[in-house]
Amino acid sequence: HNNIFCSGKNGIIHCLDNKTLQKLTTLSIMESNPNTNIRPSSSSSVTNNRNQINESNNNINITGIVVLVSDTNNPSEASSKVSKRDRRLRLVVTTNAGVAKYVCINVTSNNTCALEKNPLSLFHYHMGSLWGLAVDNNKRNINEKYLVSCGDDKTIRLWNMNNWKQMCSIKTQAAARCCYMDDSRQFIAAGLVSGGVTLFSIHFSRDNNNNNNDVSVSSMGNNRRPYSSNSNRPTSSSSIRKIPSNVKSNQSSTTASLTHRVYRKDATSEISDIKFDSTGTLLAVGSHDRCIYIYEIIISQNSGYNLKLLHKLRGHSAYITHLDWSNDNSMIRSSCGAYELLFWDVQSGKQITSTCMNESWRTNTTVLGFTVMGIWPPGSDGTDVNALDVCKDSNLLATADDFGTLKLFNYPCIVKHAPGRVYGGHCSHVVNTRFFKNGENNCNTYIATTGGNDSSLFVWNVK
Questions:
Q1: In terms of DSSP bridges, do strands 187-192 and 99-107 run parallel, antiparallel, or are they unpaired?
Q2: Do residues 332 and 346 lie in contact, with contact meaning Cβ atoms separated by under 8 Å?
Q3: Can you tell me whether residue 371 is helix, strand or coil?
């Protein structure tokens, strides 16, 4: 078509003549509010109003343009040739808002351009290093599962695990390192590099019209055969496959929005782990300042939402790495960079020095302990394993490590240098991993991983 396209600020595409470089048309691909699923909070319900988030479109820029060669309106049916009578151009543009859009442009006889229809959102993504990962532990509505991620792009993103699409996103005050969703699906809490903690409420609604303009992209790569780090296979027959592109996902008509409720900063260093108790009223926060903060979530009609500091737990010799709540919410266990595993009484806020071997735990994410001591590879310095999670239903343990791999072990994993299966795919350190159930009656087991600097969120199917 003898046209050149270049990107500009505020979602603008400039169409230039190929020979004269004269500007022919200026197109805007952004709607009036691209974050249609974000519900801004009111000043009356937020403490520290100066930390409220600016969600304007002024800083949304186009970061890349790809011209598709296609004879159809469907980008997945691209052909190798363009009809001479076809006067339409198809572009895929990426933005610094973390969304790729499919744009169809009509080219007139005098080579001017106009949008044929509103741009369609192809997929969403994180723009910076990806750290935080949380799964939906709600056991009442098992047919709908959600996943939360956060990272250096200062966004919290909520994903629907039935159709593998983003439901909504919202900005945070600083880069986020960890996040967690309570069991009732009422709140999402995030820990920031600034040492602050921010709390969001979730609002789910049923879309009866189901008029979703998003194009579903379910391809997660081809099936890959696992390779082993040890000649001895685990006794479990479980293996992992990447979800193939031909898998048909269940279309969900549920929509969601996030509302910023409260922000509080007590820690002096970045937050490394954060978790709700089973009631969703207590929040444990581990920081690099070697302390654990326990907050109570208070909701009142007069003052709105508030985080009340109950205890500041001191005793670790280095930065906090992971923490877990007990099933009865009476205890917390935590690990740190000095390879310490400590136990705490929640009511008194004091360290427990007696044995806690018989205690049962809501989550199993600490990388230290008797039941997980076999995860460490030969020659490890104690920092190679970044995260782990346990699926007790399948007696499986998954780890994320500095070698860019996901490893699968039998649980409990107590044999030194235990045999396990190793799976590649990330091109950076794998910083987090979580098991979750999905499908009818939670019959399918999956593993989610975040790849740190590769900005990727992977979902693995456990077979």
A1: unpaired
A2: yes
A3: helix
What is the pLDDT averaged over residues 67-76?
A: 57
Across 14-28, 152-166, 184-198, least confident range: 14-28
Return d(Cα 308, Cα 266) in angstroms, integer: 11
Give dist(CA 130, CA 431) in Å, integer.
Answer: 8
Q: Give the number of C-alpha atoms closer than 13 A to the C-alpha of residue 423, restricted to the C-beta side.
A: 26
pTM above 0.85, yes or no: no
Q: b or e along 416-441 (b: 16 or more beta carbons within 10 Å of the residue's beta carbon)?
A: eebbbbbbebbebbbbbbbbbbbeee
Burial category of 177 from C-beta neighbours within 10 Å (exposed 0-12, middle 13-18, buried 19 and up): buried
295, two tokens? 């907050």
Do 169 and 60 form a contact (C-beta atoms < 8 A)?
no
Degrees to nearest 5, angle at CA 259 with 257 and 260: 150
In the chain, the amino acid numbered 301 is Q
H or E element at residue 4: strand 3-7
Nearest-angstrom CA–CA distance, 354 and 333: 13
Is cis: bond before 412, omega within 30 of 0? yes
- Of 207-221, 306-320, 346-360, 427-441, the poorest mean pLDDT is in 207-221
Contact 309, 316 (CB under 8 A): no
Name the residue among 367, 364, 377 with its Cα closest to residue 420.
377
Lookup: tokens for 212? 């979703």
CA distance 255 to 445: 24
Over residues 232-271, the pLDDT tens digits come to 444 444 555 455 444 444 444 789 999 999 999 999 999 9
**Residue pair 411/374 in contact by the 8 Å Cβ criterion:** no
What is the Cα–Cα distance from 223 to 221, expressed in whole angstroms? 7
What distances in angstroms separate CA 153 from CA 169, 288, 310, 383, 428, one per listed residue?
11, 20, 31, 25, 17
